[in-house]
Amino acid sequence: MTNERGIRRTHIAAQGGGTLVLLLALSATPVQARLTSAVGEPSAWDFQPGQGPYHRQEVQAEKQQAAAAQAASAPAPQIPHGSLQTRSGWEAGLAVARQTFNEDQTPAIKERGISFGVRAAYTKAWDKAWVARFEGAFDDGPISYKDSTTSKDMPRLAAEARVLLGRDIVRSGWAVWPYVGLGYRFAEDSSYRFGNVATDQYTRQVHYLYVPIGVQPRFALRSGDRIKLTAEYDPLLRAWQDNRLSEAAGGWPDLSTTIKSGYGLRGQALYETGSWGVGPYATYWNISHSEPTCGVKHDSSGTALCGDNAHNDTQTYGLSFVYHFAQE
Prior knowledge:
Lipocalin
């Protein structure tokens, strides 16, 4: 090892006694000493004159404490807005649900069953705010039909097509998408009664044209996943029911009835992680009775049949699984 201070003193002493004053002045000036290892790396002995060899450990401890205090006081990382933007691309999904249908006539008609469905949707977002969405759904499954005289299992199916438009509102940690649109719903089942008249089995086809008005809040989680909720009100624009009475024995004509009014409600809670989503959903339709309509038998008797479709409601509770294919 080489000692800087020793070299400087030896050099000064060689100048003679005339430099004694200068020697004393230099010896009084603090000079930093550093011991280096054989490989030239600084050792742990890094100190100023008059300080102990443990001064460096004390300084390091103080720095560590200051860094820990700074980390503790630092604000929590903000969730990026991008994770809450509505994602563009295709979606596909599956659904399973419990469905009930009640018709308030005398005698009452009740239908119960499990339905299985498929879902498809395409979402287009632009300008980081506007969002258009196109949705399609199909559900089918066996139901148990029951009135005062008949109890039988039969198929029931439903299909929907919707277009929605709205503008995203994104904030730190949450976002919301209010929207409005146009929807069409088709449902088909069978019945053994038209109004108060008992018949053989015939097909009923219901058509709803409605306006979806909804809001979809979304909340980001620190894991990068998010929760998406949907609440929607669906007032009817127009609705009608086709009764294929000609399928029943007796020569009855097909009759179409116009539904006066009605509305639907729907809600969903979806947990999204990566491209996958899963969560419960529910829909409810409350449909008023239809205008009475009449028809004449296709025979020489000229017997008239008059009736309407009674007030009814449909309730669905299910679980949906969604996969998002692409993100633009």
